[in-house]
Task: structure prediction
Amino acid sequence: MSAIRPDAPLIDAEEDLTAAPQVTAARRRLRAHPALLLAGIVLASLNMRAALAGVSPLLSEIGGHFHLAATASSLVTTIPLVFMGLGSIIAPRLARRWGTEAVLCGALVLLCGGIVLRIAPPVVALFVGCAVVGTAIALLNVLMPGLIKRDFPEKAAGMTALYSTAMIMGATVSAATAVPLENALGSWQGSLVSWALLAAVAALLWIPQAVIARRGTHHGQAAATPAHTAETGPRLGRSPLAWQVTLFMGSQSLIAYVMIAWLPTLFTDHGMGKSQAGLVFAFSTLVQMAGSFVVPMLAGRMRRQRLLGVAVSALMACGVVGLLVAPVAGAWLWAVLLGIGQGGALGLALTMMVLRSGDAHTAARLSGMAQTGGYLLAAVGPLILGAVHQLTDGWTVPLALLLVVCAGLALLGMGAGRDRRIGSAA
Result:
């Protein structure tokens, strides 16, 4: 198989190709300046993980404030994942109805509101705010790749790298500054709500872009008609390969979000200070950039990705074993192993959505299936491990279960990494 093309689509949320050529040209003339669009992409990407990563170092304070048990506290990270999966279903429909720019702007406004709602006094507001945050992030997750493919077709690879790097950077800064902001502002509420400011600034930057795009739509009425999206091609629900890719995406997401939810707490339970635990967690998030950049580059140049699937699973398994043996003494080393493994697994999952598809339409459908199913599966992880931690009053059994997931991920990588395409003969 040849190397993956830089402009190969993962998911296209808005079918501009169905519009008449003169309509498409009119819309392009009325698009925002590339510099404004670039700034909007970077700011939106910074928000795509920051609101989640900043919760983990403060989870014990949040649980203590509302008198929540470990299982209930894990809902703070589980609920956003559930709604990230559900929100992925409606994102393309909203984009076809209102336009990508308008929905992105609305998602950032929604994100800002959800962040503020999380610190309202009643505990129900905390959980409702988590749902709103998850829905907003889902819209950003699904629409951003389509926007980049549409507006930067010749620079898709570079723009994708920029937006994914900004996303990880936002998560890293959020995790690293959560405790210092808590100390500076006097409460965990101040630390969490501070990220609403970044979302608000990003939303303001997208307002003129949404207005310009809507004017372009009204310039040619055909563009306002929702695209026809008939379900053609192979039936993904009956494809074992499609399910292997989906479960690989879900399993690596489960491991990643268990770490987001519980890694700082695991360190503090073993005697590490809160500030240092936040720094180690942030460092692990930062290291993910190495894996998410290198592994897809290697995958696109290999006919089979089975070895890569086993390698990233093994790296994460080694990190989990380290947490079992010497959680504090080797914390920085385990952070490196987990970070490279998690970033590589995410990059491999996204790459296999393209490599295992016979055409762009199938790739888009597979991406939608994998993101929806993957986030819903990932939502189970923090909740179950939190419950097991509460029942066993320790981390040995939860980490042992995580090793089982790593083993399953390796097996799924062996299946999804075969040199086959969905719908083709075995």
Notes: The chain has two domains: 1-227, 236-426. The radius of gyration is 21 Å. The chain is about 75% helix and 0% strand.
